[in-house]
Amino acid sequence: MVLCCLTNRVTRLILKQRMDSLRPFLFFSCIFFLNKFAISLNYLQFYSPTFLILKCVPILSLAAFVRGKFGSFARIRQDKHGYRIFIGLCLSMFADAALVYQDNLPIFLIGIGLFFAAHMAYVFAFGWKDFKPKLMILCAVAAIVTHQSVAHNMKNDLPEVLKTSGIFYTLAIFSMIWRALARLDFGQMERNNWRDVSAGIGSILFVISDIILCVNKFVTSIHAAGYIVMTTYYAAQLGIALSVPEQPVKLKP
């Protein structure tokens, strides 16, 4: 019931946005999934420039959406939250490009590093105003349980560098959840800023996407994992992008 309420609120938030600004994201997301479906039918090649571009363009569209809220780069640089979300989206876009070639270990590690940097950008964007140590402990425990559960079942022939990087990456994504959820008042949900709710939902979806990707690649095959990963990923980035409030236009005197 609570999840349905939150989803309805975030849906209203999306509808309040300038839909002209979100249409490129929605359009290119649909084009990407059509392209992915065509690849699954062997009509198109997976490792193609077209696939790489179509995978990255939806996030580029969200970065443009966030930048458009401020009107100029000069104004967005003055807003810590908006600027860091913008940087996180740009880093995510380059990480998306790297993960297209995830069978190449060096390129895959570059993609993981870029996503790690994107998560840290989101962590600092969400800020440290409400520390909430109990929530921090809960997220830390969840991070440990998640990492140990996946690491225990990972394939034995994986390079040690992947196992080590997984520790830091897990800490980063659960730190993002901690800082996003710390902005919420769980005692009185109706009093929350629904942009903060959007950020919280986005951060949770991001972690779900990453966990499914990791399990599918390193533990066991999951049916339709590619579609699940990218759907939750795009929804996560949309939720985070929507956390940036609309900025009032300053008219010249």
UniProtKB/TrEMBL annotation:
Entry's localization field: Membrane
InterPro entries linked to this entry: TMEM86B-like
Enzyme class: hydrolase
Residue ranges crossing the lipid bilayer per the database entry: 25-44, 50-70, 82-101, 107-128, 166-186, 198-219, 225-244
UniProt KW Transmembrane helix keyword: yes
Listed EC numbers: 3.3.2.2
Domain of life: Eukaryota
Membrane topology of this protein: Multi-pass membrane protein
Record-linked Pfam families: YhhN (PF07947)
The reaction(s) this protein catalyses: a 1-O-(1Z-alkenyl)-sn-glycero-3-phosphocholine + H2O = a 2,3-saturated aldehyde + sn-glycerol 3-phosphocholine; a 1-O-(1Z-alkenyl)-sn-glycero-3-phosphoethanolamine + H2O = a 2,3-saturated aldehyde + sn-glycero-3-phosphoethanolamine
Keywords: Membrane, Transmembrane, Transmembrane helix
Similarity comment text for this entry: Belongs to the TMEM86 family.
This protein's name: lysoplasmalogenase
